[in-house]
Amino acid sequence: MTRRDTIDVRSEEQLDQKKLAAYLAEHLEVLPITNTDFSLRQFGGGMANLTYELDFGPTRLVLRRPPLGPIAASAHDMEREYRVLSLLYRDFPLAPRAYLFCGDATVIGAPFFIMERRYGTVVRTSLPAGMARDPRAPRKMSQALVDALADLHRVNYADLGLADLGRPAGFIERQIEGWFRRWEKARVEPLSEMEAVFDWLKDHIPDEAGASLVHNDYKLDNVMLADEDPGRLVAIFDWDMCTLGDPLSDLGALLTYWWDPDDPPFMRRLAETFMPAGTPGFLTREELVARYAERSGRDVSRISFYHALGIFRLAVIIAQIYIRYVRGQTRDPRFASLGGMLPLLARAAKTVAGLPS
Question: In this predicted model, what pLDDT tens digit does every residue of 164-179 receive, in sequence order?
Answer without folding.
Answer: 999 999 999 999 999 9
